[in-house]
Design brief:
The complex is a heterodimer of chains A (170) and B (363).
Chain A (H helix, E strand, L loop, with lengths): L7 H134 L5 H23 L1
Chain B lengths: L3 H11 L7 H9 L14 H9 L4 E7 L2 E6 L1 E6 L2 E6 L12 E3 L9 E4 L5 E2 L2 E2 L4 H26 L9 H22 L7 H19 L13 H17 L3 H8 L8 H47 L1 H44 L9
Antiparallel strand pairs in B: 1-2, 3-4, 3-8, 5-6, 6-7
Helix pairs in contact in B: 1-9, 1-10, 2-9, 3-9, 4-5, 4-6, 5-6, 5-10, 6-10, 7-9, 7-10, 9-10
Classes of the chains: A mainly alpha (170), B mainly alpha (363).
């Protein structure tokens, strides 16, 4: 039966020892450990959250990057296309201009040739008129006895005329 | 709680072991065959078991050839003639010292008593360092050293950048488990106030249970299987539960939410329940550990009883006992942990229940 009855001496020591153990451990032992465990748990939770956020950010960045690359490609294609168009335009314009120029030059040349022709014709006409007048003068002055003499006269006068015409011209 | 009780009861039925008294058993069994003192041929199983699970003024280690080998412990007694302080070895011969002797009467069996004028035995005020007290001291020093070395690691290192090593690595998971899974989960908000006490209780019970399994000095004392020790622990839990509670707790006891005609019965039951909860804590731990020690001692004693019967039976029973003893020792290791865990968890549950508010819902 003594097993079931608390013993006063042991009770005294048990209370004393447990009080000391509890005091020491509650003051210097467990709070330090549990506090540190708590801190570490918070730190780990925090780190995990940050890692997750970083992961998400990287995901966003990669999306962004892919988007930017696609955009750049589009831009590139567009610029190339524009450049090709511009080149074609320039070439076409240059061609048109050259054609215009050529046409203008031709027209001018034609006009000048026409003018030259006109002036040459005019000159010839005046020369012919003059010659005719001279010839007529000579014919009238000389007696045209025979056909042979007549022809000789004509040629002679023509020579004169042409010679004088040339001298005049010069 | 209901879920835990069968477990605890089951453990009590099967647990056991601790071979601390094996040496005693050897001594008692061998003696009759030796040329030692004349003794009865029966193995004194009762004496072995109760000698072990009780307390004593000396730390008996073994007997060699009839000579008792034990560590004398200080006796501190205040009798009618004042304070007495001497080593227990002075009481060994049974004649007494300074008017004090160890009683062999039914009432004070094994305790130091003095005789009054009429020749009646009376108990003096006795705060001797008995075997249990010394075992308590040893395991307490060990516990404090372990926990402080663990907390010192945390003080000296940055727990955020280093993994714990040594004692800290050993204790950290256990502390984390008790703190988070048991204390935080059962008590809920405001648990931090109670965590140091509950953690202390857990490790105090655990280390004393484990030291009890070690069969030789400085282990082997039946500390947590002593009702005084479990009484103190249960009493502290009782005080905490009833002193830190809120008014809902008292309302539930003195004006429970039941029909009026049931109230008188319920009030009696509730008041009864206030005391049965810590009482069950006390008895559970005490009975489990004591029964464990008893059982293993019985298993070991079987060897010596069987040895008397015959060589064939003796040999076979010895093999069975050793196998069974090994099994029991392993089981006792488990029980040492389970009982510490159960005591802590139920204390946490009682504290948690006493702090429950109606809004949070009653389970």
């Amino acid at each position: 039966m003594s097993l079931l009855l608390p013993d006063s001496g042991l009770l005294f020591w048990m209370v004393l020892i447990f009080a000391i153990v509890f005091f020491v451990l509650a003051k210097f032992g467990f709070p330090v450990i549990t506090g540190m465990l708590e801190k570490r748990r918070e730190y780990i939770d925090n780190s995990l959250r940050l890692a997750k956020e970083a992961d998400e950010k990287i995901g966003h960045l990669m999306e962004e990057q892919a988007r930017m690359i696609a955009q750049a490609r589009e831009e590139q294609a567009r610029i190339l296309k524009e450049a090709a168009q511009a080149r074609d335009n320039i070439v076409r314009q240059a061609q048109e201009k050259a054609q215009d120029e050529a046409r203008k030059i031709l027209e001018e040349a034609k006009v000048r040739i026409e003018a030259e022709k006109e002036s040459a014709l005019r000159e010839i006409r005046s020369q012919v008129a003059l010659l005719s007048v001279n010839v007529a003068e000579k014919v009238i002055r000389k007696d045209l006895s025979s056909d042979k003499a007549q022809m000789e006269l004509v040629y002679k006068m023509l020579d004169e005329v042409s010679a004088s015409g040339q001298a005049d011209k010069n | 709680m209901a879920a835990v009780l069968p477990l605890a009861a089951g453990a009590a039925d099967t647990e056991a072991v601790v071979v601390p008294e094996q040496d005693d058993a050897v001594a008692s069994a061998v003696m009759p065959e030796d040329d030692a003192a004349e003794q009865s041929d029966d193995v004194d199983v009762y004496g072995i078991i109760f000698g072990h699970i009780g307390d004593s003024y000396e730390w008996h280690i073994t007997d060699i050839g009839g000579r008792k080998i034990s560590i004398p412990l200080p006796v501190i007694v205040r009798s009618s003639t004042g304070w007495h302080c001497f080593l227990s070895s002075r009481l060994e011969d049974g004649t007494g010292y300074e008017g004090l002797h160890i009683s062999s009467s039914d009432r004070f069996d094994g305790k130091i008593v003095e005789l009054d004028a009429d020749g009646n035995e009376i108990r003096p005020f006795d705060i001797s360092i008995t075997r249990n007290v010394l075992a308590l001291m040893i395991s307490s020093i060990l516990l404090v050293a372990l926990i402080l070395s663990c907390s010192r690691w945390y003080r000296r290192h940055d727990a955020l950048s280093e993994a714990p090593r040594g004692v800290a690595a050993l204790l950290e998971p256990v502390i984390a488990m008790i703190n988070d899974d048991v204390i935080k989960d059962t008590i809920g908000p405001g648990y931090a106030r109670f965590a140091p006490y509950l953690l202390t209780v857990f490790f105090f019970i655990l280390i004393n249970n484990l030291m009890g399994i070690v069969p030789f000095f400085p282990g082997g004392a039946n500390v947590t299987g002593n009702i005084t020790v479990t009484f103190v622990l249960a009493f502290i839990t009782f005080m905490i539960v009833n002193l830190t509670t809120n008014r809902h707790y008292w309302k539930d006891i003195f004006w429970p939410d039941v029909p009026l005609w049931l109230k008188p019965i319920m009030i009696v039951l509730e008041i009864f329940g206030v005391f049965t909860k810590p009482f069950s804590l006390m008895i559970r731990l005490f009975a489990n550990i004591m029964a464990g020690h008893c059982l293993i001692l019985c298993v070991v004693s079987i060897i010596f009883i069987a040895a008397k019967i015959g060589i064939a039976i003796g040999t076979s029973m010895t093999i069975i006992s050793v196998v069974f003893g090994i099994f029991m020792d392993c089981l006792e290791l488990l029980v040492a942990f389970i009982q510490a865990y159960v005591f802590t968890m139920l204390s946490a549950v009682f504290i948690g229940l006493s702090r429950e508010r109606p809004e949070t819902g009653k389970s």
